[in-house]
């Protein structure tokens, strides 16, 4: 199984495509829906699902285009199930990006459990702090973590948006993410990939953990 990082939109939000043969999972299709669909077609990939790490506008802008084009169901955490259709909650109305919205998700995630979709299996970690419904998807087979805007190379997610909480974010990182194997690749919502080991050693926001 292979993953591909595709920075999309004006904020270069990372969309990830995790693929196996002709099937794939899409994480956070934030913008440029037509271009993303063309890339998927060009690589002969069929998305089995759209998994959202959270519902800020820069992570959801192409959700509906991909859902309608490929008939792919959308998964989101219960704490943000209303955010897709509400530009105030998803932040698009606050940042002058135009109103971004989508119909409700097809599946609501509540528990920290295993999620199996076709040949793909993930462990779900509820990692609030950047937003109340942030989810990190741990793909154990591939030694990788789709972390959204929770943890970045040398940084952590911002917590000054509605529903953000700095201490909750630090607790999420410490209790959920730093307990993963140190070689785990962290695939963040913006910027380059990193690893749990790198962030434990050098991330200035995690000093003192």
Automatic annotation (TrEMBL):
Needed cofactors:
Zn(2+)
Where in the numbering of this chain does the Metallo-beta-lactamase domain appear? 12-190
Q: What one GO molecular function would you report for this record?
A: hydrolase activity
SUPFAM superfamilies, alphabetized: Metallo-hydrolase/oxidoreductase (SSF56281)
UniProt cross-references to Pfam families, sorted A to Z:
Lactamase_B
Q: Keywords for this entry?
A: Hydrolase, Metal-binding, Zinc
| Stored InterPro entries | MBL_Glyoxalase_II, Metallo-B-lactamas, RibonucZ/Hydroxyglut_hydro
Q: What is this protein called?
A: Metallo-beta-lactamase domain-containing protein
